[in-house]
Amino acid sequence: MRPGRPWIFVGAAGLVLAVLGEIDALGPLAAAGVTVASSVGLALIAHGGAPLATEAVAMGAGGALAYEATRSYVPLLAAGLLLTFVFGTRAMRSKTWRELGFHLVVAFAGGVSASWVMRANAGLEATLWLTAIVVAAMLASVPWILPADAPRTFALRRLAGRAHGTMRLRILRAVVAHRRLSELDLPTPLRKRVEGAFDDVIRISERRLDRESGTHPRRTIDQLVRVSRAAHCREELLGALEPGSPLLEADTDALEAEVSALSELGG
Question: What's the predicted TM-score (pTM) here?
Fold first, then answer.
């Protein structure tokens, strides 16, 4: 996950909440259009990748429908349902069913809390109103603190569930490699090349599983596994050079002892 994306979501959520707070001033058609556009936009930002983007759009549209259907009766719950759908595809990327359920509960609670803050501070002066928007946007963005696989990692997981035998094992190796690389701080050019290679693996694997092609992404996966191992080793080596690192201190002590022994021999 890119560090700036959650903050982009916070800003977008604040804007959406402010607009939805005044949506009754619009006509029915305009209000529905703004709601759909806002919900789909938030869902795409929360999803954060090309894989499953179609599902993110569908979730966003479903959230807009749920919001429009309930906001006249239970406005607090309407916002909770909207955020639940917005974070739907991100929740799908959880590693277990328990994490998925918790993700959705947190999203619903965040939406309800954000809506309550906005309604409790409606009609206040501009400074307090802007403060309320910021607080509400932060509450709506709470699900970002929950762990979830990257979109490409989840796309590979779904493909592994469809595959069998050797191909399943190789795709699972790609899942592990992508998880490892997602956690590392890679240079931007290398990150783009690596993600492009994973996109190729996903595309080729989908074609093979759909029996549209006999091509196997074996070589690409093997290369990506080697890249992930090399990048992980690089990260460990750089971490060992940081001040206070146990490895660095141990090497320093050993070197000082060796220098001391050599000086005694020389004397």
Answer: 0.74
